[in-house]
Amino acid sequence: MPDSDHSLDTIVGKRQSFLESLEKNSKDKCELETDLDISRSTVDRGIRELSNAGLVTSTNSDYQLTLAGRTALTAAQQYHRRLQEIDSGRDLLSTLPSGIDIADVFLDGASYAQASPEIPDRIIRYLFDSIESADVFRGVSPVALAGYLDEFYAVTTANGTIVKHVVDEDVVETLLAAPELRSGFIKQAQHDRVSLLSGDISFNYGLWIVDDIEAGIVFYTDTGVRGIIINDSDAAIQWAHNQWESVMADATSIHQSTPQVANSEISGDSRMENTVSSTEDIDVDSNLETNSNTETTDKTGAQTEQTAESDSASPHEDQTTQADTETSEFQDNSGS
Predict the structure, then answer these.
(1) What is the pTM of this model?
(2) DSSP result, 32-87
(3) pLDDT at site 259
């Protein structure tokens, strides 16, 4: 086993600046001394260590990276980039359970946003900004923020977005049982571009996918949104699709599973001109390839109690449905 002082990771970590200086062009020792702003003796030691490790070679008096040197530098740069990404999301990630079901590919290259105590609602703008110009929006909501139902509905339907959204079955019951939420939820379910489904959601974070170009996750606290992670890499979007499809496998159209939705009539301005009777009326998969909706409604029906309290408090603050679990999902067009 090599001496730890002479191991590749030790040498690369110690002499990474040399490797980066030689990354694009070869240099002699004088040029390295000037470029790195170090003494000649330090240049001599660095070149000797890198040469002995097979990372640098020389032609006449010029030094350049070997293939091993270029590969080692790339690995070191990727490592540090990854650490910087984790550091940017550390405040949010450190609050989540260690066993939470989120793949590393979704975190690799992701952007993080955490709610601030001063402006807790501002975090939801990230979700709305993501979906406002979407053609197709897919979502999974184990919980719902009742205070944002109408706004989410307005954002997703204003520009012709096709919505396919799975809401936890307990949340559906809670929304339909609350007089102040029932009509708005039914109106969403009856919209001609909205397909609402009910299912048993095994994870406790909100998930959305927009047009196969971006995916996001929403985390909740007992009082609102904890934070959001967004990623547009192919691997992250594929993972989000797998999560969404796992929920879709056992999901049922709310029109089929909930008679009060199928039989309800919304009168006046709230009645939509066109209605859908089943999820098959909206073929999202053949239309556009992605749609994600993230609302949040907890699995315990706590939303009805919090909504009642909202008469004397901020509607965005007290209408969160939560239960024994801490996290909760974004409220979006489907009323979750």
Answers:
(1) 0.67
(2) HHHHHT--HHHHHHHHHHHHHTTSEEEETTEEEE-HHHHHHHHHHHHHHHHHHHHH
(3) 60
Cα–Cα–Cα angle for 168, 153, 218, nearest 5°?
50
Run of H or E residues at 95: none
Question: How many other C-beta atoms are found inside a 10 Å radius of the C-beta of residue 1?
Answer: 4
Residue 189 tokens read as 């379910």
Q: Which of 34, 66, 62, 39 is CA-nearest to residue 50? A: 66
Question: Which pLDDT band, with edges at 50, 70 and 90, does 5 fall under?
Answer: low
Count of CB atoms situated within 10 Å of the CB of 210:
28
Structure tokens at 40: 């000649």
3-class secondary-structure state, position 267: coil
- Please name every residue paired with 63 in a beta bridge, in sequence order, or none if there are none: 27, 58
pLDDT per residue as tens digits for the range 31-80? 999 999 999 999 999 999 999 999 999 998 999 999 999 999 999 999 99
How do 214-220 and 136-141 pair as beta strands?
unpaired
Between 157 and 189, whose confidence is greater?
189
Question: What is the C-alpha separation between 194 and 252, in angstroms, rounded?
Answer: 14
3-state secondary structure of 155: helix
Question: What token pair was written down for 282?
Answer: 């909206």
What are the tens digits of pLDDT across the range 163-211? Answer: 899 999 998 999 889 888 888 888 888 888 888 899 999 888 999 999 9
pLDDT-derived band at 256, boundaries 50, 70, 90: low
Q: Is 36 exposed, middle or buried (0-12, 13-18, 19+ CB in 10 A)?
A: middle
126 to 132, 181, 223, 224: CA distances (angstroms): 10, 24, 18, 15
- Give whole-number Cα distances, 67 to 7, 146, 214, 236, 264, in Å: 17, 57, 35, 30, 69
Output the CA–CA distances (angstroms, integers) from residue 59 to 54, 63, 65, in the order listed: 14, 6, 11
Q: Which amino acid is at 277?
A: S
Copy the structure tokens of residue 163: 């919505």
